[in-house]
Specification:
Elements lengths: L16 E4 L5 E5 L3 E7 L15 E6 L13 E6 L10 E7 L7 E11 L21 E12 L21 E2 L14 E2 L8 E2 L14 E2 L6 E2 L14 E2 L18 E3 L6 E4 L5 E2 L5 E3 L1 E10 L6 E5 L4 H4 L9 E4 L7 E10 L8 E2 L3 E2 L8 E9 L2 E7 L7 E8 L11 E9 L4 E4 L7 E9 L13 E7 L12 E6 L6 E19 L5 E19 L6 E9 L2 E9 L1
Length: 557
């Protein structure tokens, strides 16, 4: 199309919505002359996923170069394509005559194509085909047109990269204004500045000039939930709150039981002190009374938190307690309990019953306990779970001859606890020939605490053996070389039987320099012992076996 320059664009994308080709494609036309625009339309996508055929093609030219397509004669044609008649490659022609308007120069031509699933929809040049659901979809393309006078002696064409606001929208273009319109292209002087304040006419501090609510609106009334005329919509105390003259009707709430074990628990309840909206105390708790008993019995036990004195002598305890520990309960027993509150003004609540609870069964101690000296310096402890499962076991021992033993006289076996499932434990470092006494106790709470067996069970009294054995009874081929040495000693021996061994190197005052425990050892043992950093002199190698002790002298030169 055009006299000297033609628009021929075959690069349009598929479903590209809007494309601006005004700087790439242009044509010059002359007033009073006929021209034809040929449009070949595609569809949206490929069947079967997206098959939306074109239905309407429309072309607009801004002949009077005023930046819009709304003037008479600028809509140069519309073609409706009946649903189901479109095929790839069909050319749709638009013929038009350039009017003699007296306007010459660069202007804009717009081509619009749409689809809407078979429905014929009127569309204008400024609608946005943004998707398949609103209100139509398709493509819009812009091109440049140069309008020439038929009186021109020659063609003189200046191609301008022209950006035209094809649809003029009047409004406030100031982004800092209250009524800023992002779609406005021409400011009409309507901008309103932001004025912050209360915009609710029913509020106490309503500001008729405010354009933006700042959350400052005041609604008078009683905002205190403790008042009898509490208004949940009020946020401004107008002094109208009304409070009950007595607290006697306030039954205690929030009752539950926690930390239940075999002989104790914790009773929980709400703090019944109440305050008005301004922090003034309304109801002051003087005493909380608790009573409890096993289900099926008639006699109550009682616990008090403070003593009611306020209504007698004017002195109030004002207790803030919300829980009470109960001790000395019977194991595996269901209990019921009730709570009552005395206030400082002498008023009381009624008795309120909490949920029943059942104490745990006794934590079982271990059974079939035994302790004996397995070597001169080691004791072995055994037990089983014949009394029931538990979480962990603690064992402590002491020298039997100590009278009135204190905590420091006991030696722990197995550290903080031996987990359930282990039924034997060794303790090394004991004195040969010494008599010991052992005790054990279980815990049923993995974290320790008070849930343990009722007492310590005895592991018995035993005396450590004193015999020391000759080489060959328990190990063979003991070799120490070089000996004497100025640094390194090589030690080797053979254990033909599976046994627990302990290898120690000590100085002349019995300080351990090297200790190695060999559990269930059998076979050949080799080790390099370095003593070069120690003082020259005599050292001792001790090997503790299942049958006794073997001692050898080491000479460091």
């Amino acid at each position: 199309m055009g006299d000297n320059f033609d628009i021929n664009n075959n690069t349009a994308g598929l479903n590209d919505f809007y494309e601006d080709y005004s700087s790439l494609f242009y044509a010059d036309v002359t007033e009073g002359q006929m021209y034809t625009v040929n449009v070949t339309a595609g569809n949206l996508g490929s069947p079967p996923a997206y098959s939306y055929d074109p239905q309407v093609i429309n072309i607009y030219i801004d002949f009077n170069i005023d930046g819009d397509f709304s003037d008479p004669g600028e809509d140069i044609g519309l073609i409706n394509i009946p649903w189901g008649t479109w095929n790839y490659g069909i050319v749709y022609p638009f013929s038009f005559m350039v009017p003699t308007t007296g306007f010459y120069g660069a202007t804009r031509m717009r081509v619009v194509c749409m689809s809407n699933a078979g429905a014929i929809v009127n569309m204008g040049p400024c609608e946005s085909p943004i998707g398949r659901n609103t209100p139509w979809f398709g493509a819009t393309e812009d091109y440049s047109i140069v309008l020439n006078s038929h009186q021109s002696l020659c063609d003189s064409i200046v191609i301008i990269d022209l950006t035209i606001n094809s649809c003029t929208v009047y409004g406030c273009t100031d982004p800092n204004a209250f009524n800023y319109d992002a779609n406005a292209t021409v400011d009409d002087g309507s901008c309103i500045p932001f004025i912050y304040g209360c915009t609710d006419p029913i509020a106490l501090n309503y500001n008729a000039t405010a354009t933006s609510d700042d959350g400052s609106c005041l609604y008078p009334g009683c905002p205190d939930p403790n008042a009898t005329n509490y208004d949940p919509n009020a946020n401004f105390d107008d002094g109208s709150c009304i409070y009950s003259a007595s607290c006697s009707g306030d039954l205690i709430t929030g009752l539950y039981v926690s930390d239940i074990i075999d002989d104790r628990c914790v009773l929980n309840f709400d703090n019944m002190n109440t305050y008005d909206f301004n922090g003034n105390q309304i109801c002051r708790v003087d005493q909380i009374r608790i009573k409890y008993r096993p289900v099926g019995t008639s006699s109550w036990s009682q616990k008090n938190i403070a003593s009611p004195t306020g209504y007698n002598n004017g002195v109030c305890n004002s207790t803030q307690k919300t829980d009470k520990n109960l001790y000395g309960l019977t194991l595996a027993t269901e209990y019921q309990w009730q709570v009552k509150v005395w206030y400082c003004d002498g008023q009381t609540t009624g008795w309120v019953q909490g949920p029943n609870f059942t104490t745990a069964s006794e934590c079982p101690n271990v059974g079939n306990t035994n302790a004996y000296g397995s070597t001169p310096t080691r004791a072995t402890f055994t037990w089983d779970d014949s009394n029931g499962a538990y979480e962990f076991l603690r064992i402590k021992i002491r020298i039997d001859s100590i009278s009135n033993p204190t905590l420091s006289d006991f030696i722990q076996v197995g550290g903080a606890g031996i987990q359930y499932g282990i039924f034997t434990k060794n303790k090394n470092g004991l004195t040969p020939g010494e008599t010991y006494r052992g005790q054990g106790r279980t815990w049923c709470d993995p974290n320790g605490g008070a849930y343990n067996s009722l007492g310590w069970t005895s592991f018995g009294v035993w005396t450590q053996p004193t015999n020391r054995i000759d080489l060959g009874q328990s190990i063979k081929d003991l070799d120490i070389y070089p000996n004497p040495s100025n640094d390194i000693f090589n030690i080797s021996f053979t254990s033909e039987d599976v046994q627990d061994l302990r290898v120690r190197v000590m100085n002349v005052i019995g300080e351990e320099l090297i200790v190695e425990d060999l559990q269930q050892f059998v076979g050949e043992y080799t080790k390099k012992i370095t003593l070069g950093d120690n003082a020259k002199g005599i050292y001792f190698l001790e090997i503790e076996t299942n049958q006794g002790l073997i001692n050898k002298k080491l000479v460091l030169q």
